[in-house]
Amino acid sequence: MTDRLRVLLVGYGLAGRVFHARLIDAEPGLEVTAIVTADPERVAQARADVPGARIIATFEEALRTPDDYDLVVVATANSAHVPQATAALQAGLPVVVDKPLAGTAEQAQALIDLAAAQGRQLHVFQNRRWDSEILTARRLIDEGTLGRVHRLESRFERWRPQPKGGWRETGTADDLPGLLYDLGAHLVDQALHLLGPVEAVVASVRAVRDGMQTDDDTQVFLWHTSGAVSILSVSAVAGSIEPRLRVLGTQGALEVTGLDTQEDALRAGASLLDGQWGVDTGAAHLVTADDPQRRPVDRARGAWPEYYRAVARSLRGQGTPPVDPRDVVANLRVIEAAAQSARDRVVVRLEPPAGHV
Question: What is the pTM of this model?
């Protein structure tokens, strides 16, 4: 490996260009040296954004020279995640895969087994563990400020009464369209990260807008083995937006309004190196048994750059992966249970419970 690990970035749409390329560029231990895209507009954009990178038309062509890379980043459509991650691992390369890693826990476990057999690392881009509100909640839980947490309410809700189209809203089953597998994958990961294993799931997974075939308004209720519950909501048809996050404990409560701002900052081209990255001015309030007056609390700084920093360290044998891929198997067990619950209108029990490592 060279001083900077050479990254093959597969896909240069929103995920590849706005999220992965920008975050990789901010990590001194990594460098995008090749980009796979065939779309003429994206080719031109990639050449402008990353002038030193080779542009390769197909993933198959790129893998003909696996020694040219130290890491493959799969930032393509959901349907390509499993086959492209499989091909990268079979070529002897470690891989980062955007979420969702796969459509089923069984597929995800098969990738983990392949990575182990190949002696290569498999990473999953669950970047929203480093959202400001999640880091704030994690800090207060770990400090014991909230006491024993008994309820988490977590939402990604938007007001988009007119569908935007595209595979995320109109794709086939193989595309894993809809909000349950999209933003829902983040909310489930965050819930298990904060409150631990889940033993039962009930969900409503609905298509509300005219002509929609995939879910655009979904709620998931989780029973954790600790006795806590999580109430998760993802919606494109929420004309009235509730708080982003509420964490209720026996000794206090945290309420956060407004989404973490790192995605908007990346879309706007903000610098990750200006010293203000991740500073979030959205409201966060705390109530405790010692001080029942609702008062502002400092939000932790959002820290998406930590993801690729940890990937680089892990590849060099200097630290643990940012996200254990076995956590994502647990997430997918919960997501599959939610889909089954909505379809059959039943409570689905998980044996054994689904929890992070």
Answer: 0.95
